Amino acid sequence: MDSIELIESFADFKDEKNIDRITLMAIVEESMKTVLRKRYGSDDHFDVIVNPDKGDLEIYLNRKIVEDEMSEDDLLEIEISEVRKIDPSFEVGEEYTQKIELNELGRRNILAFKQVLNTKIAEYDNSNLYEKFKSIEGEIVSGEVHYIRHKQVILVDEDQNDMILPKENQIPSDFFRKGETVKAVVEEVGFKGGKPLIILSRTSPKFLEKLFEFEIPEIYDGLITIKKTVRIPGEKAKVAVESYDDRIDPVGACVGMKGSRIHSIVRELRNENIDVISYTNNQQLFIQRALSPAKVSSMELDEENKHAVVFLRPEEVSKAIGKGGQNIKLASWLTGYEIDVRRDEPEEEDIELTEFSDEIESWVIEELKKVGLDTARSVLEKDVNDLLELTDLEEETIIDVIRILKEEFEE
């Protein structure tokens, strides 16, 4: 490698890799010192001077001047007689600096230098790429579909950086074509084989939250905060929001007139059904809202064990549970409570026996009341034999009373 090749190499690195001058100097210097260590066992006595603008790379070896025939290390020491051929003013004990020409290192070491330089440039690139994507973890990026595999889709950004969208991070109904632009959130950034591994996700709750932030100005401006998001990707999601301004309805602001603000988000998520819920610190009320669209009749709450038993009218139970149990599952994830649903059967209508005084003689009513049977249903819950044992009434009278009471409820 001559000076011209160095100049071309420096120019390529600066243009292609966009490396600043100081960083490039440090990389070239360290690369050469790596070769010197392999060649001489140490770089302690070498000075490497780099000028990337000109393509200059100068190597100097510092050797101690010793008496003739007293040299113990030809690399680190030089005899006085040899030095004085160059400059008679040198004295024993002084340091002699000798310039090492690049071609003196030999072809093998020069090739090693190029390899080390390329490796360190790649490491620099990989480190920069890692830091770039690490700083935007949790943010949305767009990429073009470059390659579709069975278990993952490879996207490339505008700088041609590879990003991986695994199958498990795709919405079940996602279908991609090569060249298509796809949005996803940066879920994780790591290293594999020394190269940055950028994992994307379209199923993460963070993806939904960021879409809300893009589409709803009040969230972007911080007037509305997303407290928690839970999803069954591609099916249903619940988002709890809170407003710090009493004048702003957080749910209305997120949904928009006739759902106008949320339509684009639903489309991006392949028609995922999104419930937006107003957050509250009142756990009972929050659970009620989380079970929307079902209406809760009453609730038993065990805050210590994070358990809630909710009672609903029969027609509301299916709404609370939802398709495939999705609604109650998401409500549980959102609130952090285990939720049990119970049917709230309405109390059956009952009538006091005294209301039948025009049809049943008063002494008969009093006889029944003596044994604690003071309502129509309390009497009907007993059969004829029970009533015969409990009271002094005749069987014919009891049968007549039962007939009268049944007719009332059958009307």
TrEMBL record:
Domain Transcription factor NusA N-terminal residue range list: 5-124
Domain called NusA-like second KH: residue spans: 285-347
Transcription factor NusA first KH domain: residues covered: 202-279
CDD domains referenced in this protein's UniProt entry, alphabetically: KH-II_NusA_rpt1, KH-II_NusA_rpt2
Single GO molecular function: RNA binding
Keyword list, A-Z: Cytoplasm, RNA-binding, Transcription, Transcription antitermination, Transcription regulation, Transcription termination
Pfam families per UniProt: KH_NusA_1st, KH_NusA_2nd, NusA_N
UniProt subcellular location: Cytoplasm
Origin: domain of life: Bacteria
Principal location: cytoplasm
Sections of the chain in a coiled coil: none
GO cellular component entries: cytosol
GO biological process per UniProt: DNA-templated transcription termination; transcription antitermination
Keyword Ion transport: no
Family under the similarity heading: Belongs to the NusA family.
Role, per record: Participates in both transcription termination and antitermination.
Subunit details: Monomer. Binds directly to the core enzyme of the DNA-dependent RNA polymerase and to nascent RNA.
Protein name per its UniProtKB record: Transcription termination/antitermination protein NusA
The organism of origin for this protein: Apibacter mensalis
Protein's gene: nusA
